[in-house]
Each structure stands twice: as C-alpha cells, then as structure tokens.
Design brief:
The chain is mostly beta strands. The protein has a single domain (about 1-105), classed as OB fold (Dihydrolipoamide Acetyltransferase, E2P) (Beta Barrel). About 15% of the residues lie in helices and about 45% in strands. The protein has one helix spanning about 1-15; strands at about 30-35, 45-50, 55-60, 75-90, 90-105. The chain has a five-stranded mixed beta barrel. The longest helix is centred in the N-terminal third of the chain and has 15 residues, at about 1-15. The radius of gyration is 15 Å and the shape is globular. The two termini are about 15 Å apart.
Amino acid sequence: MKNIIGVLITSLILFSSCGKGNESDGFEKSVADVIWYGDPAADGAGLWLKIKEANYKVTNEDNIAAKYKVNKTKVLVEFIKVGEVTYYTMAGPFKAEGVKVVRFIEF
C-alpha cells in the first residue's frame, strides 16, 4: 500500500511539472477511484469516477477497456468535464455531472 501511495505521489509530481505543451489542451489529470455499477445494457449504471470527493458519470464508457471497469480500482486519468449528463437505469433517467475519459495513464 505504501508503494502505491509513493508511486501516486511521484506520478503527480512528474505530471504537474510538465512543460507548457499540456496547458492549452483543456484536459485535466487526476488520481481517481473507479466505481463500476454494472453494464448499462443489463440495467446497471455503468462506469463512474470519483475525483476529489465528487462522482462523475463517464460518458464514453463504450470506448474504455474492460480492465478499467473494476470497482474500487485506483487510476490516474486524463479527462474532460462535460457538464450535466442524463443516464438511464431500470429505475428511470437520472442526471449527474459527466466526464469524457481521454486516457488512463498506467502507474
């Protein structure tokens, strides 16, 4: 566990010290917890990311590899906030803040 925390801190320091090339692309980077509520095709709520104590619905989960759809996985993610989105489950439509995942960055 201490190794993971060390790697996360080192990664954040390295990525935050990158040159100006990433400042204008509009992407954000953060460590996030994966929340997997099950496949939307089977009435699940799909893929979510918990970023800095806020939960975000992933809008492009069909493009996300299965290895990232594991509940409680900690990831380093590059994303774009897309505002309020509507998602559907068996209980009906719901609204939440959404993110589009640009890429997951391997630790």
